[in-house]
Amino acid sequence: MAAETKRFRYGDPIETDAVMVEIPVSAGDPAGLKVDPGAKTMSRKMSEETIVYGLGETVRGINKRGWLYKSFNADDPHHEEGKNSLYASQNFILLDDGTSCCGYYFDHPGAVYFDIGYTDIDMMTVSFDDMDLYVYEIEGDTPIEIVREFRRIIGPSYIPPKWAFGYGQSRWGYKTAGDIREVADKYDELDIPIDMVYMDIDYMTDFKVFTVDPEKFPNTKDFVSEMKERGIHVVPNTDPGVKIEPGYDVYEEGLKGGYFCKKEDGTELVAAVWPGKIHFPDFLNSDARRWFGDKYKRMTDLGIDGFWNDMNEPAIFYTDETLSGVYEGLDKLRNEEMDIWGFFKFKELMDSIDNNPEDYRRFYHDMDGKKIRHDKVHNLYSFNMTRAAGEAFKRNNPGQEILLFSRASFIGAHRYGGVWTGDNMSWWSHLLLNIKQMPSLNMTGFLYSGADTGGFGADTTEDLMMRWIEFSIFTPLFRNHSALGTREQELYRFKRTDDFRHLIELRYALIPYIYDAFVKAAKENDMYIRPMAFDYRSDPNCRDIEDQLLVGDSIMIAPVYEQNAKGRFVYLPEKMKFVRFRSVDDYDVEILNKGNHHIDLALNEVAVFILPGHSLPMAKPAKRVGEIDFENLKYIEG
Ligand code: MIG
């Protein structure tokens, strides 16, 4: 039986455009959900065996059971397991008890709460602030079929240019053309392959979107082409907020066109982000979307062909309203004698200043004639920023392939771009989190994804960087990025640069495999990275595995994610060929039988397991994706 979808309607849903295939609305409630309109909940009992997959980029495991997740895109750099929200809202879940399975998509643009065995370990309860939504219930025989059907209805995943499968170096702190050039030079001096160097916010004039500071980049066009001639793409960061500055044309145009989000009284919301006081473009309005999207042409006219959209939850440092509330509160405290409760009140006031929920209720969108308060459609903001860019590229750069990925996301955005998982930390636990997030993101259509390799916040270490790279070799987006003020982590900052070169070369040798598997997954609505239990569903030992993954059709990976570990345990659901790579040409192979094994993996060694009957194609090492010979490959037979 092929999987089948039914659609149910509750209340007065806002059209999100997440789903592309028109499915007739069925009467009644979904077969597997108990709907309680009074409580605004939809629930379902789970058996002891039930695994709950999905939710895209979230905290915790591949199996989402045992926690409360809130879909409400959050700018929160503390990705700890006690959190309920990260940057993304991908409201797709898949329940599998081993013999029967089904999927649900809750198409709702506001907050959605997924209590998956949190209140009651055997119950899943999904709730809403407003029960205005479409629910899609997908029935099918296997998790793979359900995902395929879900992906069919949400439309095809974005495929980036081939060079976007190369290695990228980024850091918040590169300021000038000279800084960027130096990064490229150092990589080239050490012969470490690289295809991209990223430009973080300092390239702009006063953080004004769609500007390049002429002092830091005296001739951007020449610089971009100089870099491109050596095979390197420069990829700038783009923020949604438009600086309020008379004379700045983006601001003037936006104001004149009425493209900014307004408050109840009809005046533009003023918020503070990097540029200082800004207005937010109303991406939920098709005219504003078109207008903002067209501005990317300023950058593509300079030869730029890749972008990362940041801060689009949207993040708000403060608004005047919140700020004066905080000042008032502080003044009150100042006039009273400070006691211990005053101290806590003081701290609470300070913490309330950014991303304040009240601020998300302070402004409205004009959804093509319909005025809707922001918090009701919060999760659509980043989707429509990405869409603004993606649609504009089709319009203004026809036939050109452009790299695009975003921080915040919602289903639908996967058709226009990829995602990176935001401000993680240089922690071993975040390498493991990255491993667990990838298959969940793949389920929801975000195939082009990856994390800040080496970790963004906090100081990385050489061994963490090495182990992280050994995993990122397999993620479509492979970018080393770090925060201002942290230890510098370009690969040339470390001692074992030969090992790093060998690892990045291995990535490049595997790009024919990775790219093929990626494109095939995108075209066939499959997953490029999958949990073990998807392919080995009848093997009970695979049901709990959260740290081994299937990549494409031919390989399994088992990354090391513990500091000082010299190897790890793996479970093989069938006989496989274990390849221990030190470099493209230096590896040993061993056939391992089905069962548990401990494998030794020195710090510079990567484990790849080739599935029986499959083979792993490898290209000759190249310094740029464009130099890879996709025709002459050698094959390691499984
Ligand atoms: O408030 O542009 O997640 O990757 O380096 C921080 C500076 C803004 C957040 C992004 C991060 C980026 C940083 N940005």
Description:
- Helices cover 26% and strands 24% of the residues.
- The chain has 638 residues and is an alpha+beta fold.
- The protein has four domains: 4-154, glycosyl hydrolase (family 31) (Immunoglobulin-like), CATH 2.60.40; 162-264 and 272-313 and 378-466 and 473-492, TIM Barrel (Alpha-Beta Barrel), CATH 3.20.20; 321-351, no CATH class; 515-637, Immunoglobulin-like.
- Helix 5 crosses helix 9 (381-396).
- The two termini are 31 Å apart.
- The model has no long low-confidence stretch (mean pLDDT 97).
- Bound molecules: ligand MIG.
- Residues 172, 200-201, 237, 310-311, 407, 422-423, 481 line the site of ligand MIG.
Keywords:
638 residues; alpha+beta; Immunoglobulin-like; TIM Barrel; 4 domains; nine-stranded parallel sheet; six-stranded antiparallel sheet; 37 strands; 24% strand; binds ligand MIG
Strand order of the largest sheet: 25-24-22-18-14-13-12-27-26
CATH-derived architecture of the largest domain = Alpha-Beta Barrel
Give the N-terminus to C-terminus distance in angstroms.
31 Å
The CATH homologous superfamily of the largest domain is named Glycosidases
Total domains, how many?
Answer: 4
Mean pLDDT across every amino acid position:
97
Helix content: 25-40%
Structural class: alpha+beta
Shape: globular
Counting DSSP H or I runs of 4 or more residues, the number of helices is 13
Under CATH at level 1, the class of the largest domain stands as Alpha Beta
Q: What ligands can be seen in this structure?
A: ligand MIG
Task: List unreliable stretches of 5+ residues.
Answer: none
